[in-house]
TrEMBL record:
UniProt name for this protein: SAM-dependent methyltransferase
Domain Methyltransferase: 44-134
Cleavable signal peptide: none
Record keyword Cell membrane present: no
Taxonomic lineage from the root: Bacteria, Bacillati, Actinomycetota, Actinomycetes, Kitasatosporales
Length: 222
C-alpha cells in the first residue's frame, strides 16, 4: 500500500527472487540482438532496478562506462552491491540530469509505471540523453491471446490497480496493458526517433507465427 518509490525501497532486498525481475533469457536475447548493431561506448539503463540490465546487457555490448538510473534508493543500493564498478544515479526518468551523453539506452520492465500521457515527455528525455545517432532499445512482449489465462490475469491486475489507486493514496502506478506497441511507436517518432523492431527469435514464436517478443530499436536522428 506504499507509493511507487517507497514500495520499491521495501521490495528491493527480495526483488531479484520475485516474479517482477526481467528473466535472464530476455536480457540475454537482448544482448545478442544488440551486439551486431554496435559498437557502443557509453550505455544507460533507464529504471535500472537492481542492475540486471547493466550486468547482463550493457556490460556485454558497451566498451565504455555504463550507468544505471532509478528513483528508488533501495533498488540502487542492491545494484551497487550486485554490480560494482558501474555508475548508479538516483533520478526520475522524467527528468534525467544528462544531455548528449550516451550511445545506447535500454530499459526492462519499467514502462508500466508511466501513464500513457507521460510517455511523450519520458521519450523526449531519453532522446536528449542520447548522442546524435544513439540507440534506445527495449523488449516488448506480444500481448496475450484475448480470453486466455494470461489475458485475464493481466486484465485483473490492472483492474485491481485502478481500484486501489482510486481508493488509496499515495498511488502505486503499475499497469501492464497500457503499453501498446502502435502507440509507443507513435510517441517515439514524435520524440524524434526513427523506429524499427527486431524479433527476438530465441524467445520463440506464437502458434500464428508471430514472435513472442520484439526488440524495439529507436534511433535518435543524427
Amino acid at each position: 500500500m506504499s507509493s511507487t518509490r517507497r514500495g520499491y525501497d521495501l521490495l528491493a532486498p527480495k526483488f531479484d527472487s520475485s516474479p517482477f525481475r526481467t528473466p535472464d533469457g530476455m536480457l540475454d536475447a537482448t544482448a545478442r540482438a544488440l551486439r551486431p548493431l554496435g559498437p557502443f561506448e557509453a550505455g544507460l539503463d533507464l529504471c535500472c532496478g537492481t542492475g540486471a540490465g547493466v550486468e547482463r546487457v550493457l556490460r556485454r555490448v558497451c566498451d565504455g562506462p555504463v550507468t544505471g538510473v532509478d528513483f528508488s534508493e533501495g533498488m540502487l543500493a542492491e545494484a551497487r552491491r550486485a554490480v560494482p564498478g558501474a555508475e548508479w544515479v538516483r533520478a526520475d526518468a522524467r527528468a534525467l540530469p544528462v544531455r548528449d551523453a550516451f550511445d545506447l539506452a535500454v530499459s526492462f520492465g519499467a514502462f508500466g509505471h508511466f501513464l500513457p500521457h507521460e510517455r511523450p515527455a519520458l521519450f523526449a528525455q531519453v532522446h536528449d540523453a542520447l548522442r546524435p545517432g544513439g540507440l534506445f532499445a527495449f523488449p516488448v512482449a506480444a500481448p496475450p491471446r484475448v480470453g486466455s489465462r494470461p489475458y485475464w490475469t493481466l486484465w485483473g491486475f490492472d483492474a485491481a490497480m485502478r481500484v486501489r489507486n482510486a481508493l488509496w493514496h499515495p498511488r502505486f502506478v503499475m499497469y501492464y496493458r497500457r503499453f501498446r506497441l502502435p502507440e509507443v511507436r507513435r510517441d517515439l517518432a514524435a520524440a524524434g526517433f526513427t523506429v524499427t523492431t527486431l524479433a527476438l527469435e530465441s524467445l520463440g514464436r506464437r502458434p500464428d507465427g508471430s514472435p513472442r517478443c520484439r526488440l524495439v530499436l529507436a534511433r535518435r536522428r543524427a
